[in-house]
Amino acid sequence: MTGPGRAGAARTFTAAQAGLFNAALQQLRGGSAAAALPLARQLVAQAPAVADAHQLLAMCLADTGDAERADASFRTAVRLAPGNPVPLVNFATWLRRVGRTAEALDGFRRAAALAPGHAPAWAQVGLMELDAGRPHEALEALERAVRAQPRALDAWMGLAAAHRATGNLERAEQALRKVLDAAPAHAPAWVNLGAVLRLQGRADEALACFTRARDAGFDSPELRDALAGTLVDVGRPGEALGEARQLVARHPGFAAGHATLAHILWEYGPVLAADEDPLHAFRAAADRQPDNRELQVALVAFLLQSRRADEALERIGALRRRDDHPVLAWQEADACQALGLAERAEGLYEALTAHYANHPGFRNARTRHLLAQGRWREAESHAAEAVRLDPRNQEGWAHLGVVWRLLDDPREHWLCDYERFVGYLEVAPPEGFASIHAFLDELEPVLARIHAAAREPVAQSLREGTQTPGRLFGRPEPLLVAAGQALKRTAERWVANLPTDPTHPFLSRRAGQLRFAGSWSVRLRSSGRHASHVHPEGWLSSAFYVSLPAAIGAGRDEGDRAGWLQFGQPLETLGIDLPPRRVVKPERGCLALFPSYFWHGTLPFTDQAPRTTIAFDMVPESPWDRLTPAPLDSTRIERHA
């Protein structure tokens, strides 16, 4: 054997060196990196031109915490095996482990380019793209991974996650079923399949998946939380409450579990636990765990959502004396804004702007504060930044519509053309029904049975009413299936007649096929209404009128519009007194369609009969939907003003 670095040095192990390699590798795999390290050093001294020797040494150094020498040894292994993707993959895996993610992704990409059929490299590229919030890029890499190695279960799991992140729930389901075909006891696949089915509205099937995972021995607070939520979806709120109570008892530091328990008690507590404060357990857990930031933030968020800003502010003050994290300062700013402490809120928002400069949600919060203070030009700047960061951000566009209206800017009419962009259509009856009214006569009792809550959800627009849990379309009831199909057909026909405009945030995403991004029913009681709001998760939103009380106004004058739908009136808490731009009289069997960024709400009514609607959000079913408009090019916008 030749000496270190000499030309012609052997690039493979001798039999004795192979034995030394295996002995060191066995120690390393057994968790004894310190014992493996001297063997690896000895091997490198004997076989300096063999890539596997340097790779083994790098792994030992990495596991013993010697990052600098591990890096050097990995690089030597890569240099000695220029045609082999394995050292690159192992090096990149270590880089990812130590937080050097950009270098790791580059390494995995180099390995994949070197060996296009190497499934582990493509799988890691896809998983890293997914972690970075780039699911479309992840899809391509993970598809290549499963083509190269059809039984690569981690790649199929990643592919399912990428499809779910892009909204393609059917493909996500298919990928997860591939995993379960190969490994029927794969509990994480059952958990993820349950989550995907629940998002499709198939709550009974989702519950079976979660139960299957638990029966297989898988137990986690996340699984128990999903079980509780799904029990609500399937109409078993009493069991859901019991599951949520067990969850917080077993995992008192799990913030999401406390939020789930509070939500169940908020909506169903008046019947299931009449004397219990929905937030009692949440507060007690937070008081016992003052250093659990996630729990504290979740409680404050619930307080703000339930319009208890004074209590939220009191808690934040105590929290920030121990933990001055920016998210707590943001919550304090929101609480001050809700309580009318404008100067204090301004100071907090201003101080946080640099930290959250690239956060559309913060830009929207700052915009709302500035709108409430009458600082319209500054509000425009932050709203414009929100849609620059996220061109599909419905709240950002909604805020721009308000600002441009206040400034008498013609772009308001370009963005919010209430005549063209609000559709109001009669829905044809599903097959087998003589009229839409005959269909609704049978549909209404089905919806009434699903409306099991006692009050409205937290952080929703409805006041004095209830909302169905989960996804309405996807449930197995035949009448709901028929309703979903009829409404989807109606929406797609209306969208097909819209003009195209690649610069417009609504028209640029027009597609022939749409998919539901959410669906639910609302049942308003007497004096019920919807506060003005927008739908952040949609592109196209809706209201379909199933049953209407006699008190719905006839529209003889402006005071005769009880229960009507109105557009263009901004969020009430902004304190901006603007009349609606358009009002629509509800008609049973009719469907209103409009961009999800349109401010919309309803006027209250007084009647013993409820006002029942179905609402849904839709997004384009198109690969081109990832393309986004250039949001604020005024030279092109003015052409359409």
UniProtKB/TrEMBL annotation:
The keyword Transferase does not apply. The keyword Repeat applies. SMART domains: TPR. TPR repeats lie at residues 51-84, 119-152, 153-186. SUPFAM superfamilies: TPR-like. It comes from the Bacteria. Pfam families: 2OG-FeII_Oxy_5, TPR_16. Keywords: Repeat, TPR repeat. This is Tetratricopeptide repeat protein.
